[in-house]
Amino acid sequence: LGYILGATLATILGTRLGWRNVFRFTGASGLILAILILIFVRDVPRGATEPGFKDLIEIKGARFSWTTARGLLKRKTLVALYAQGFFAVFPINVVTFWLFRYLEVERGYEGGFLLGIMAITVLSLGAGLQVGGALGDWLFQKNLRGGRLLAGAGTIIGVVLLIMALFTSRENALMFSILVAVGAFFSAFVSPNVGATISDISLPEVRSTSLAIQSLIETTGTALAPLVAGLLAARSDLRTAFIIIIVCATVLWLPCYGIALANVSSDVEQTRAELLSRKDHY
pTM of the full predicted structure? Predict the structure, then answer.
């Protein structure tokens, strides 16, 4: 979202203000937001969201330990989610990173129409994050695999729609815009549900560590995806690069998704059981 918004602002305001001033404006906005978060946002008491600890104000005595952190790698769901996260970020990041150039050079779109597609994509991604998170929480209450099922379904639907968009003709711009927007909406379902799943199967004292590992792995995939697409596009075109990366990434993350789906219920129950066994000590 930040990349697309930044690129849109640079396109709209760059010629008037210069890209340096646009950079200063967006950078300053981030700093102001960070200060506001520091002042007004309070940490949720550790363990307060656990079902077995609703009557406790805060879990005390739980401290980070390397032994517990290393134990994260024994959770099959976590390892599978980490591997899936690396490959799953390739399609959406390749499309968003190269979307401006693809629309301008290979589809011949320009001006207000191009910015309109970008705006719709941004709004769809934002809406998908909110709807996906809310639906994932609701499904998780019904079934411990609910969030994972939603994430997988959303990603697959998003992949299919994005590939369909790439096969639409240049003249059929409306259908292309709709497919990209709806594909981005469903692709966004995975992000909130993966983070929630990692939190659900990690003990409170190492949740930040498990989420940091996920962030590092996904950031690595996010950085490599545009590079791989650029190398492929140099030998063919961006459309071909998009299709190759989307298909290959999907084939690679599907087995990881299956492993995570098969083990998530038992891993969540194991974490809850361990927390309940600690309850008398807090």
Answer: 0.76
